[in-house]
Amino acid sequence: MSFEVRGQRVVVIGGGRSGRAAAELLVSRGASVTLTDLEPIDRAGDLTARGITIDVGAHRPELLAGAQLIVVSPGVSPDQPGIAAARRGGVPVIGELELASRWLSGRVVAITGTKGKSTTSTLTSRILREAGFDAPAGGNIGTALSTQVSRSTPSSIHVVEVSSFQLETTDTFHPWIAVLLNLSADHLDRHGTFEAYSAAKSRVFANQTAGDWAVINADDPATLALARAGRARRLDFALENGLDDGITTKGGAIVRRSGGEVTPLVPLTSVRLPGKHLLADVLAAVAVATVVGVPPTVMQAAIEDFSGLEHALERVATVGEVQFVNDSKATNIEAARRALESFDGGVVVILGGRFKGGRFEDLRDVVRARAAGVVAIGEAAPLIHAALDDVVPVRDAASMDDAVQRASALVRPGGVVLLAPACASFDMFKDYADRGRAFKAAVAKMQTEEVRQR
Questions:
Q1: Which residue, 58, 103, 214, 230, is the most exposed by fewest CB within 10 angstroms?
Q2: Which of 95, 120, 141 corresponds to the end of one domain?
Q3: Same domain, yes or no, for 363 and 328?
């Protein structure tokens, strides 16, 4: 499609990774760009040198009202009063994902879901690149999609992790393959209701046609319900639902069922990721690779070489007889539940942070079955006590060092200390990665102390 911004006044809201990339892309296309943020912007000098005007301290209503286009970063709600007023005044408002997608030459594989997006996106990109495709990963993971526009060719396959925040500001975004991994309550602090959150996720299918593909988790009822209205061809994947057609497991292998035939694709022994939910992510990546036409031997080679992502059920260390596992990316209730289910028992789990919605009560059964105790951190600590005090011992901690120490005091030999917060990190940390690094640093201190005591 033809999309022209040359000579237009464009305001980009949000000076983080996505906003900076959008501003640089826009100015390269001839727009007059102002980048605005409430806080100082990294690399402001470099941006100014490229002709981008920096405006910090407030999103001034007169600036927004005078724009011909507004581009919002994912962390910026499009419902903010100044943005909403500009939209009512006729100013188009889109997100960075939508902006970049309008100028891509290659096809898009868009991967969304409540949990597992980063793992699936990374592995999918690796499988496709192993097969010889130009298949960069980006979007909500790694680099913003705007940085890929200049290198995009008709043969490129852009593997894009997309969040609900990115999808809610899309209009023409059109994935060739749209993947919905799972769906449960998340980001209710932003979206307000589960229905609004689901509606944002459903936009990944909005512009697909009968020539496209939807890859769907058939084990997840909410995912299946959301996918029913789609127009694309379907390839389902499932661990537990007996599929007649799709990607599943049988006889120690990931297989493709089709027309009564079962074709082995990848031995399960090739999968190096822990937990059933991560195996489901592998199945999703294999489903995408199947649509693209990647040979099974290539899939197997890429999967064997993939040991997972930092902060996603990352095995940090064993200290004494206790295993320490970092799942800082478990930022919602469902993700924490799946992390706990990855272990047989004896887990002390560190929960808490800035609450995003859902119910800690939904963790009661899995905590009763798998956990020996809970350490509560951050703003959500009172909610954790209210939900779990009568299930297992719950202890408070004021810092990550304190949390690791208190968890170590609760755990028994042979057990696991698991960071799976079920919350955002912004009350105590810069982001989930900062929180995960703090956990690993606290474990390293414990290792050092153990060596000293030998």
A1: 58
A2: 95
A3: yes
